[in-house]
Amino acid sequence: MMTDQADQSRRNFLYVAAGGMGAVAAGATVVPFIGSMFPAADTLAAAKTEFDVATVEAGQLVVIQWQGKPVFVVNRTEEYLKEVDGHDAMLKDPNSEAIEAVTAEWMTPENRKYRSIKPEYLIVVASCTHLGCIPLFKPTAGRKEWGESVPEDWPGGWHCPCHGSLYDISARVINGSPAPHNLHVMPYKYLTDTKVVIG
């Protein structure tokens, strides 16, 4: 009788020990698997880009990288900013309503036409919304040497060399362009008066 109780106790101990070892083994397998689902530190660092817009001279465009994508940063002069108004009828989405939900917190009625927190600094993804080509910066008003697809009253901005899409100086797409949307504005904010963080 004592032997049956001892056997039963030994059996219960072995069940508990085996169950505990199984739980430890499962944890040792699951924890690294779950950990592998989180982005690596270098990936998280690449998700945001800091840039000092004061390094861009008046009238200049520079291209920086954000999440592996090229990004245009333009310091628009007073002359360029004057080109923002007066051609809403030429635009597919003059108020930038179709794709700008990510920037809604700063996209007020006044800066919708500028598509930027500070009017002089435009920051947009440098990829045509048609098939992803990189548009060329052509800030001067309509120029016939760029082809028949460029209307004489085009106010200047970007011209996509692949399929002829046109954008104005606020990167808003012109009617008749193959591109369906304005160039994308990604989320960004100012850390200082001139330093922005994108992403």
TrEMBL record:
Its EC number is 7.1.1.8. PROSITE patterns: RIESKE, TAT. The chain crosses the membrane at residues 12-34. Keywords: 2Fe-2S, Disulfide bond, Electron transport, Iron, Iron-sulfur, Membrane, Metal-binding, Oxidoreductase, Translocase, Transmembrane, Transmembrane helix, Transport. The keyword Transport applies. Gene3D superfamilies: Rieske [2Fe-2S] iron-sulphur domain (2.102.10.10), Single helix bin (1.20.5.510). One of its GO terms (molecular function) is quinol-cytochrome-c reductase activity. It is an enzyme of class 7 (translocase). Residues 114-197 form the Rieske domain. It holds the Pfam family Rieske. CDD domains: Rieske_cytochrome_bc1. The main subunits of complex b-c1 are: cytochrome b, cytochrome c1 and the Rieske protein. Belongs to the Rieske iron-sulfur protein family. NCBIfam families: Rieske_proteo, TAT_signal_seq. The Rieske protein is a high potential 2Fe-2S protein. This is Ubiquinol-cytochrome c reductase iron-sulfur subunit. It comes from Mariprofundus erugo.
